[in-house]
Automatic annotation (TrEMBL):
It holds the Pfam family PDXDC1-like_cen. Keywords: Coiled coil, Decarboxylase, Lyase, Pyridoxal phosphate. Residues 447-552 form the PDXDC1-like third domain. Its cofactor is pyridoxal 5'-phosphate. Residues 335-441 form the PDXDC1/PDXD2 second domain. One of its GO terms (molecular function) is carboxy-lyase activity. GO terms for biological process: carboxylic acid metabolic process. The keyword Lyase applies. Residues 624-737 are annotated as: Disordered. Residues 661-672, 683-693 have a biased composition (Polar residues). PANTHER family: PTHR42735, PYRIDOXAL-DEPENDENT DECARBOXYLASE DOMAIN-CONTAINING PROTEIN 1-RELATED. The keyword Cell cycle does not apply. This is Pyridoxal-dependent decarboxylase domain-containing protein 1.
Length: 737
């Protein structure tokens, strides 16, 4: 029967928010969409309304919207005499361009199809620094084998390591031509997805003209074409055959399409490739951009892109002043993407300790350090993104640099609303994390050596753990089977982790990562430079031994108690048989026994057994009934505890190195005590009359002096045990002071 609009909208609301309505406010769930965002969203609903107009009016309106938007974008990004294709998927524009180039280079492709491609195989060249999976996606959509895709390596000797090697590309093209292949298209980057570097577009354009290839450019640095000052490397992109622009992320506009600008003179081929459509409704894809560009204006668009560039420059200037931070940017004056990582020179960290090792060991150490740096930078990026979410930093994996932290404001600042104060906060957080990383990296090797020297501890090498290290307590198995030994090991290390977390320290102890970590281990997190590694390792070992001894004591006690119960049952059974013999058979008959006990009562002392846990033996309870109290027996042995707990000052946490503050405290105490003695010596000459008296009176005066120093409640305490004249004299002297 259908539903009304209110019910349907309520259903949509429930599907959007689910059960979070009670827990989370609406402002936290939905992205903060500004007025310019509402303009872009309005374009989608307006396009649906406009599509119901009559055909002639719809044709005029869509032609106006499409021509205006294309003209504005070509002027804004300095792309003269260009056409535009609007698409939702940012890879779809390149796919249409590939089809256009195939139709252009293979004249009989429309009639013969793949037979033309089979006789002369096309080749598409893509940089190895391009987006992951781009080449495979193109081959799948075009129906081409993967052999048609050629990945061009980046520079290894000269130039940026993220730029395409032009000389090597030239040799690859020559080899393909000699093998009868047709070089078709080259995809270059104006800002690689990882590091944001720009290929040498000028030389690549010359190479494409030489071999009649199509040059397509994409990347985040294309946004800087709208600025007043543009670097020459990016400005060369205006001479390319096509480029893809992602205005949604650059300007913070939700649900706006990507745009591919291109130059081609044959409209029939562009229609065959799908870059143009005869359907007016498809032309309405440009309506959200048409509305948003008018709302922002030329000044607003340039201001947003300029603000993103200023953010990257602000961060880059601050990073130059930080130690242990290595940056990787293409142009320090105008690079919209900043790549940085934590890195400590090998020569600065215990170089002398490794000087005597062999070259193979050195290579192994450097390889391990690379993995450790990747782990630490992964942790650093996650911490910065969590502490300053408005910055938009993320972690990126680069081929040569490894794991790095990336700041790309052109892709994030407009959406997140990043400001200058967010960059300053990011730098402050980075300053707090760098000493922790440096200290942990420096103490990591010392921790490993201490653990390997300690009996009962096993060092576990886990290069993927961002922290001090991983340790496992290994106990003596005593010939137990593997299953029981594994359970006992898990029990001891779990209890060890619990005990360590109960200590008052700044360290974090955990079971490691949720996936891929070692079992039955204690993972120690980041540390500071005041950590006492030896105390930490000794505490872990002592706590583990304590847990193991308690476990063994419990096992032994369980066995002793079991045997004691069995022995007590046997003794009680024998005692019961002896009682029957003493009482006689008649007393066991119910009625006769009661009458007999009434005429002739039988006095029998109760006999029981007590089990002494300390001695592990059975004892009689006769002494208990005689003395009306339970005997204490021998004193039980003390519970094994760690004897390595150091005396700490009030407020000092565990595993901290002892500073000179404790010595200063004792010196201050001694000085104050000496001051009190000096005051006492100053008061003693005033009591000279007492010193001139006899020995007994002198002794009494000494006692009175002690009373004066010890008692301060009332004056009666001072007058106690002292003659009035002397007391008056003391009071007068005190008042004069």
């Amino acid at each position: 029967s259908g539903q009304d609009m209110v019910s349907i909208l309520q259903l949509v609301q429930n599907l959007m928010h689910g059960e979070e309505e009670e827990e989370t406010s609406q402002s936290c769930r939905l992205q903060n969409v500004g007025e310019q965002g509402h303009m872009a969203l309005l374009g989608h609903s307006l396009a649906a309304y406009i599509s119901v107009l009559d055909r002639e009016r719809l044709r005029k309106l869509t032609t106006r919207i499409l021509s205006d938007t294309t003209l504005w974008l070509c002027r804004l990004f300095r792309y003269e005499n260009g056409s535009a294709y609007y698409h939702e998927d940012d890879r779809e524009g390149l796919l249409k361009i590939c089809r256009l180039v195939i139709h252009t280079r293979y004249e009989d492709y429309t009639l013969e199809g793949f037979n033309v491609l089979y006789t002369k195989q096309p080749v598409i060249y893509i940089s190895s620094a391009a987006r992951t999976g781009l080449g495979q996606a193109l081959c799948n959509q075009l129906g081409l084998p993967l052999s048609c895709m050629c990945h061009v390596p980046c520079n290894t000797v000269f130039g940026s390591q993220h730029q395409m090697d032009v000389a090597l590309l030239d040799r690859l093209i020559k080899d393909d031509v000699e093998f009868g292949k047709l070089p078709l298209l080259l995809v270059a980057n104006a800002g690689t997805p990882g590091a944001g570097h720009t290929d040498k577009l000028g030389r690549l354009k010359e190479l494409c003209e030489q071999y009649k290839m199509w040059l397509h450019v994409e990347g985040v640095n294309l946004a800087t074409l709208a600025l007043g000052y543009v670097s020459s490397s990016v400005l060369a992109a205006t001479k390319c055959d096509s480029m893809t622009l992602t205005l949604g992320s650059w300007l913070g506009l939700p649900a706006v399409p990507a745009v591919t600008l291109y130059r081609h003179e044959d409209p029939s081929l562009t229609l065959a490739a799908g870059l143009m459509s005869s359907q007016p409704v498809e032309k309405l894809r440009a309506l959200p951009l048409w509305l948003s560009l008018q709302y922002l204006g030329h000044g607003g668009i340039v201001e947003r892109i300029k603000h993103a560039s200023q953010l990257s420059q602000r961060l880059l200037e601050n990073l130059k002043n930080l130690d242990f931070i290595k940056t990787s940017v293409e142009d320090e004056l105008s690079s919209p993407v900043v790549i940085f990582k934590f890195f400590q020179e090998y020569s600065n960290r215990d170089q002398t300790s490794h000087a005597a090792q062999a070259s193979t060991n050195q290579h192994h150490i450097i390889s391990n350090e690379g993995h450790i740096y990747d782990t630490f930078n992964q942790w650093l990026g996650e911490q910065l993104a969590q502490l300053v979410p408005a910055s938009g930093v993320d972690v990126v994996e680069l081929e040569d640099e490894g794991t790095c932290v990336r700041f790309s404001p052109l892709m994030t600042s407009a959406v997140l609303g990043t400001e200058i104060q967010d960059i300053d906060q990011l730098v402050d957080c980075l300053k707090m994390k760098i000493p922790v990383l440096a200290s942990t990296l420096q103490l990591r090797e010392e921790f490993e050596q201490e653990v390997r020297r300690t009996v009962g501890l096993l060092y576990i090498e886990d290069l993927g753990w961002p922290g001090l290290g991983v340790v496992r307590y290994s106990y003596h198995s005593d010939g137990k089977n593997d299953d029981k030994q594994e359970k006992e090991l898990e029990k001891i290390n779990t209890e060890l982790l619990k005990k360590l977390n109960e200590l008052e320290s700044d360290l974090t102890f955990s079971l490691g990562l949720e996936f891929g970590g070692q079992k039955n281990c204690v993972y120690i997190g980041m540390v500071t430079d005041d950590l006492d590694v030896s105390e930490l390792v000794e505490t872990i070992a002592a706590t583990g031994r304590e847990i193991e001894e308690n476990s063994r004591l419990l096992e032994n006690m369980t066995e002793v108690v079991r045997k004691g119960i069995q022995e007590a049952q046997l003794q009680l059974q024998r005692a019961n048989e002896e009682r029957l013999l003493e009482e006689g058979l008649l007393r066991q008959i119910p009625v006769v026994g009661s009458v007999l006990n009434w005429f002739s009562p039988f006095q029998a002392s109760p006999k029981g057994r007590t089990f002494n846990l300390t001695a592990g033996s059975l004892e009689s309870t006769e002494s208990m009934y005689v003395s009306k109290a339970q005997g204490t027996g021998s004193t039980p042995p003390p519970t094994p505890t760690s004897s390595l707990a150091k005396q700490r000052l009030p407020g000092q946490k565990a595993f901290k190195r002892s500073l000179r503050s404790s010595d200063g405290f004792s010196e201050t105490s001694s000085i104050s005590h000496c001051d009190d003695l000096d005051k006492l010596d100053q008061r003693s000459p005033n009591l000279s009359p007492s010193q001139e008296q006899g020995p007994l009176e002198t002794e009494r005066a000494g006692e009175q002096k002690e009373v004066v120093l010890a008692k301060t409640d009332t004056e009666e305490d001072i007058h106690h045990d002292k003659s009035p004249p002397d007391c008056t004299k003391v009071e007068d002297q005190a008042s004069q002071r």
